[in-house]
Amino acid sequence: MLSTLRNAWKADDIRAKLLFVMFMILLYRLGNAVTVPYVDTALLSAHFTEIQDTMLGLLNTLSGSALERASIFALSIQPYINASIIIQLLTFAVPALERLSKEGGEEGKRKIEKITRYSTVAIAILQGFAFYIMIRDMGMLDPLATGFWTPIVIVLTFVTGSALLMWMGEQITEFGIGNGISVILFVSIVARFPTEVGMMISGFIATPGNWWIYLLIAIGALAIVVLIVVVTNAERRIPVQYSKRVVGRKMYGGQSTHLPMKVNMAGVLPIIFAQSIASVPATIAMFVPRWQDGWLMRNFDMTSIPYAVIYFLLIVFFSYFYSTVQFNPIEVANNLKKNGGFIPGFRAGKPTSEFLQKVLTKITLFGALYLAIIAVVPLLISRFSETARDMGIMLGGTSIIIVVSVALETLKQLEAQLLMRHYKGFLE
User: Fold this and answer.
1) Handedness of CA 117, 123, 129, 132 (dihedral sign)
2) CA distances from 265 to 90, 235, 319, 322 (A)
3) Could you tell me if 280 and 310 are in contact, meaning their C-beta atoms sit under 8 angstroms apart?
4) What is the spatial order of strands in the sheet that 256-262 belongs to?
5) The dihedral of CA 57, 62, 64, 67: what is its sign?
6) Which pTM does this prediction carry?
7) For residues 36 and 74, is the Cβ–Cβ distance under 8 A?
8) For a designed S-S bond to 181, which of 82, 134, 169, 356 qualifies (C-beta 3.0 to 4.6 A apart)?
9) What is the C-alpha separation between 100 and 344, in angstroms, rounded?
10) SS3 label, residue 70
11) Contact 242, 258 (CB under 8 A)
12) What is the C-alpha separation between 243 and 336, in angstroms, rounded?
């Protein structure tokens, strides 16, 4: 990894991309420190200290503590993620969107991106208004902020910040390294690590008798990191044989190769999308004061069994959903047939596609269960262990898997660009 980063920094074009990403990250962190007007941030921060182990606390973690500061980026990238989920699901339900995604080409892709942007703004307006209502009902507004413009300024600032983050993510994707949205989410979580580590150290000093719990947490975190790296790089290699053919006076084909199928094709997206959807009921309850002690909050809080079950099932669903989108067995089988390739033991065409579908189903199930277990087990531990809940262990699984997966994805992007640059220089 260090050699890859060192080689990437030596290349002028890649170094420029890395510097661009760093500049965008700097702007993002500066924006997190700029608060919206009319909000008593001291009261708001104290409130989040009390609810750090709740759903709103998780949203605060994913925003890089911007939510507790009521900064211009308080909504973070969540509106864009939610909009992406909705639009991608609708492409399978609405014929017009399905035609755009499959037959529209680049123009259709641009139209879908445009629809996603508009949906992001609409969701940001709803979330920004809900956040304002929560602040107002809890008495966290400036006593002098009683005018007509107060809610308009606060909500528009939140919406503008969310739209700006969406634009920054797109710029990182286009001119930087890796997926911009994932990079922003990565930075948001990493920014919280010093605070979380400081809290654990303070807890260890206060209760030295529980040293073994902290040791188990450290060992568990390292084991999760190793497991994520192993599974992310794991793949099922299907042997492929190409038949010989004569073209003119030359003979082509006859070589053997393999078709790689990633165990976890969807990466970290199932975790992000499942968390966004599973948190909707509790988030709504958090923004409505009279619902905070009601049935909805009790059954859909992060430590509740219904939330864990829904979270688990959504991760499995999105794993299959994205694996199906990224790998089409029928299309792969047809491409092999056109190029004279076949899988030993299976005829070209339908038998090959059926075999690929069976393999895809098996490895996707393993990848989905791996993601779901890592994300859900810390929640269940927090459910039955008050000590673990006090140390914030419930946020560990989701945060670690997002951070490690995004880091590996970005590293692979760097390696791919280095390889591309090497071939380009060789050809020139």
Assistant:
1) negative
2) 21, 9, 8, 7
3) no
4) 256-262, 235-242, 341-342
5) negative
6) 0.76
7) yes
8) 169
9) 37
10) coil
11) no
12) 11
CB crowding 332-350: b at 16 or more within 10 Å, else e: bbeebeeeebbbeebebee
Structure token pair of residue 84: 């992406």
Per the rule left: phi > 0, alpha: psi between -120 and 50, beta: everything else, 280 is alpha
CA distance 142 to 158: 17
* Alpha carbon distance 149, 145 (integer Å): 9
Q: Is 256 left (phi over 0), alpha (psi -120 to 50) or beta?
A: beta
Contacts 24+ apart (CB under 8 A), 146-154: 150/38, 153/36, 153/37, 153/38, 154/36, 154/37, 154/38, 154/39, 154/128
Task: Work out the burial of residue 367: count CB atoms within 10 Å of its CB; fewer than 13 is exposed, 13-18 middle, 19 or more buried.
Answer: buried
Strand-pair category, 245-247 with 250-252: antiparallel
- Element containing residue 20 per DSSP (H, E): helix 12-32
C-beta separation of 271 from 402 below 8 A: yes
User: Given CA atoms 348, 354, 355, 357 in this order, what sign does their dihedral have?
Assistant: positive
Q: Are 70 and 36 in contact (CB under 8 A)?
A: yes
Phi–psi pair at 148, nearest 5 degrees = -70, -30
Query: DSSP per residue over 330-358, as a string?
Result: HHHHHHHHHTTEE-TTS-TTHHHHHHHHH
How is residue 39 annotated by DSSP? B
Chain mean position to CA 19: 23
Per-position DSSP letters for 172-213, written without gaps between them: HHHHSSS-HHHHHHHHHHHTTHHHHHHHHHHHHHH-GGGHHH
Q: What 8-state DSSP symbol labels residue 259?
A: E
- Residues listed for the chain: 428
The most distant pair of C-alpha atoms in the chain lies apart, rounded to whole Å, by: 88
